[in-house]
Amino acid sequence: MTYEVVAADDDEIIRQTVEFKLTSQGWDVTSFENGRECWAYLESSASDPPDVVVLDVMMPGLSGLQVLQRIRDDESLASIPVLLLTSRGREEHVVEGFDRGATDYLTKPFSPTELVARIRGRLE
Amino acid sequence: MIAFAIETVLLLVAASIAAVTAILGAVTLAMARWHRRTRRRTARIRDRVREGVFERLFEPDPGWAAWIGGLSGAEREQLRRVVEAHLRRLRGTEYDRLRTLAGELGIQAEAKRDLEAGRNRFRALTWLALLGEPVAVSRLEECCTETRRHRAGAARLLFESGHPDGAAVGTDLLIGDGGRPLSAFGMDTLYRLNDGGDTPLLERIPEDGGAWDGRLLVQVLTVLRYCSITEPPEQLEWVPDALAHDSPQVRAAAVGVIERHGWRDPVQRWIDVAELLADPEPTVRYDVYQLLASWGTDRSAAWLREGLDAEDDREVLAVVRALSRHPRASLPDPTGRLEPFVEWVQADAAVGRRRERVWGVTAAWS
Predict the structure, then answer these.
(1) N or C: which end of chain B has fewer CB within 10 A?
(2) Tell me, what's the ipTM?
């Protein structure tokens, strides 16, 4: 099964790793380096939304939490599973993320294999 | 005749300056072009190497040895950088495979040799910590207590390698530097060593805290504020002493500790709130208001409402802001004197502005 995944992280290395790992599963991945570009893409794809969104919490422009809020506030995007990537020790981001409707979260440093398993768990 | 000679000399000087300037300009341009070309070449090599890592990293058998056997010296150099960058960001299966790759590159062995020989010690500690490679405590105490940087590197290695006594030994390495303040890296390491499980800081503060530089005490209290503590509440019996410290930065940091860990009944009983609210330093009182908001009891709401009568406008704003966070209190009626404060706090909430207080950190690093 081919899924469409949107990922946003301002760390190039993490972005590339996520992109490579998810692409190696045969999934289509569109990635962005900030929340603003990611949200612009999601807004423009509201008629054909992605299957899952992976967001870094701390990003310039719009943070992952702000993008998440906008996704949940948008009727056509609200049901998309959203996974957050948070830094270790930022428990408040996890709490705020769940408050805003995050589906799941992973703590950085993270395991790409676990990321795939969590996405699969939500979609299959 | 003399005028002609002066003119000739001046012309010669001007020509020399022009020639030197032209040569320097040409050399600068040539060096800039060379650097740019080198940077581009290095970036191309790194991209190629990274691609090679990704092609193998997600395979059950990456076949590192065969691959790196065919790499040039420059490619191996860039590969080390790629490995380092990814070790910092990854965990799990991929981390284990990168660790194997580091082994094939001889990084662990080289770092241990360097540590033994006293060469590039911080670099060696960094690699060993990234790879979670254990080193005997006695060896670390022998080679890595000279500078604050080395102490922090050794403590980080103890944490990353999961040494059974890592929390206690690492904490002592960090704070045993004559009571001097920590670097940001040192603070982060202290947090990691004390978060959850053992929290040796809880013993070190009452034992040695009195002899520390005030900035270190603020740093330690700040770290403790963020740590999850599983120790019994009696371990926090020293906090009232810190709340009475001469330095307002220390008092504010101690309030931060209580804000985080004061949900335990015995801790709340040790605190004289009336005394805290009478602190001469406004920033300490503002932190006390946040503390009362986080306690979330009817009594703490009543204390906050008393603060609405303060004379200073900034103080009233701090109280209204705390009331807005209190789970059992509501904002006061926006009438009379309180109207602008309530409107301000409501406007803040409307735009989702987050006002995170980082307890004492500014003071600690200033």
Answers:
(1) N
(2) 0.91
